[in-house]
Amino acid sequence: MWKLIFLVGGGVLCYLGYQEWSLAATANATPEEITLKKLIERGPDGNPNVIITDFVLGNNFVTSSRRGRWTKVWVPVVPREDIEELKGEGVKVESIRAILCSTKVRTAEEIQTRLNQPKVPGMVINKIASLGSKEKELLKTSYTNVDFDRCLIIEEGREPADVMKLSLYFGGGAACILVGAFLLLRPRQAAPAQA
Q1: Cα four-point dihedral sign 116, 122, 124, 127
Q2: How confident is the model at residue 53 (pLDDT cuts 50, 70, 90)?
Q3: Fewer CB within 10 A of the terminal residue: the chain, N end or C end?
């Protein structure tokens, strides 16, 4: 049992390390300040380390929680220019082409204090993550015509992984795999003979 836990755990850590490395490899250390409209036009390519500006939060959002506490929130966002062009008619569903997510928001009030700011730092994570089917289904109850598979996903507050973080992932993963392999390959002790 333990050998399987170590092997699977080591594999998961190495996979997470690879994801962090692949995102960090394309990111500049200095975040790029960019309007949401320009970021949507550019797409998920380019520097994923950004500070987004000129956006408006959608009215509805989705959360995941554990033991009654929010663990993640997904909030659709639209470029401010799109809202201004509509002369205050509100957020049009077809304008939604980006999702702002956060693992740091714990309440509806924190959506306003953390995410409803003139500048929000984060990482475009489309290359390593996508919306889950449950999140898409819940968002579609409010935004029926949005193709969430094509939306940019920007994780608020996320930064490129540094050498220490990558070392922990890869080193921890390798250590777990080695322990699991040792447990798997070690000779079994013979059971004592019964008289």
Answers
A1: negative
A2: very high
A3: C
